[in-house]
Amino acid sequence: MAHLLHVDASFAPEGSTSRALGATFVDAWRAAHPGGTITYRDLALTPPPHLDWTAVSAAATPPEQRTPGQNDAVKLREELIGEVETADEYLLSLPMYNFSVPSTFKAWVDQVILVGRTLRQPPERSAMTGRRATVIATQGGSYGAGTPKEGWDHQLPYVAHVLESLGASDVELIRVEMTLAPVNPALAQFTELFESSLAAGEAAARARAAA
């Protein structure tokens, strides 16, 4: 039975393009996988704590010697890692904030990467080995080749490298750009570009989910 882990990272409960595209993917995935199950992790609703020394030291401390704080840190980390390990497909719905990923997503990455368990060498022995991952990335501007901010995208390259390090062998990156055009008068001239990018993203999400 197929099992999808869906991670949403937008802090906006409504009006979020990344959430809407994630929902489009999920609807198509459910139709293509009758009986499939989904674990949903909303990083805005339950933001994971940033990794600290308590959590890091707990991993190297025998269970009987851990402090109460270390036990709490291990419990949460085990929950997040367990969601990754038990899924056979991943959907990451991510807006771009300040040229990169939301800090809650970075915290999630730091929690689920555990050297020797989810991250191994070679990467083919890591947690996502042989599994599919889809990244839906929304961006307020445009950062592709030839644009004024070419090279400023620290969102998609970072996520792609994280997935590669975790062993994901089938990764698709779906980018929707100029999402601020409909709400920022200074970008209104790019509204048609946003609309075409959104339509392409929706089509790509449906096709990927059904594949």
TrEMBL record:
<comment type="function">
    <text>Quinone reductase that provides resistance to thiol-specific stress caused by electrophilic quinones.</text>
</comment>
<keyword id="KW-0285">Flavoprotein</keyword>
<dbReference type="InterPro" id="IPR029039">
    <property type="entry name" value="Flavoprotein-like_sf"/>
</dbReference>
<feature type="binding site">
    <location>
        <begin position="138"/>
        <end position="141"/>
    </location>
    <ligand>
        <name>FMN</name>
    </ligand>
</feature>
<keyword id="KW-0520">NAD</keyword>
<feature type="binding site">
    <location>
        <position position="10"/>
    </location>
    <ligand>
        <name>FMN</name>
    </ligand>
</feature>
<feature type="binding site">
    <location>
        <begin position="16"/>
        <end position="18"/>
    </location>
    <ligand>
        <name>FMN</name>
    </ligand>
</feature>
<dbReference type="GO" id="GO:0016655">
    <property type="term" value="F:oxidoreductase activity, acting on NAD(P)H, quinone or similar compound as acceptor"/>
</dbReference>
<dbReference type="InterPro" id="IPR023048">
    <property type="entry name" value="NADH:quinone_OxRdtase_FMN_depd"/>
</dbReference>
<dbReference type="Pfam" id="PF02525">
    <property type="entry name" value="Flavodoxin_2"/>
</dbReference>
<dbReference type="InterPro" id="IPR050104">
    <property type="entry name" value="FMN-dep_NADH:Q_OxRdtase_AzoR1"/>
</dbReference>
<keyword id="KW-0288">FMN</keyword>
<comment type="similarity">
    <text>Belongs to the azoreductase type 1 family.</text>
</comment>
<dbReference type="GO" id="GO:0016652">
    <property type="term" value="F:oxidoreductase activity, acting on NAD(P)H as acceptor"/>
</dbReference>
<feature type="domain" description="Flavodoxin-like fold">
    <location>
        <begin position="3"/>
        <end position="189"/>
    </location>
</feature>
<dbReference type="GO" id="GO:0009055">
    <property type="term" value="F:electron transfer activity"/>
</dbReference>
<dbReference type="GO" id="GO:0010181">
    <property type="term" value="F:FMN binding"/>
</dbReference>
<comment type="function">
    <text>Also exhibits azoreductase activity. Catalyzes the reductive cleavage of the azo bond in aromatic azo compounds to the corresponding amines.</text>
</comment>
<dbReference type="InterPro" id="IPR003680">
    <property type="entry name" value="Flavodoxin_fold"/>
</dbReference>
<protein>
    <recommendedName>
        <fullName>FMN dependent NADH:quinone oxidoreductase</fullName>
        <ecNumber>1.6.5.-</ecNumber>
        <ecNumber>1.7.1.17</ecNumber>
    </recommendedName>
</protein>
<comment type="subunit">
    <text>Homodimer.</text>
</comment>
<feature type="binding site">
    <location>
        <begin position="96"/>
        <end position="99"/>
    </location>
    <ligand>
        <name>FMN</name>
    </ligand>
</feature>
<keyword id="KW-0560">Oxidoreductase</keyword>
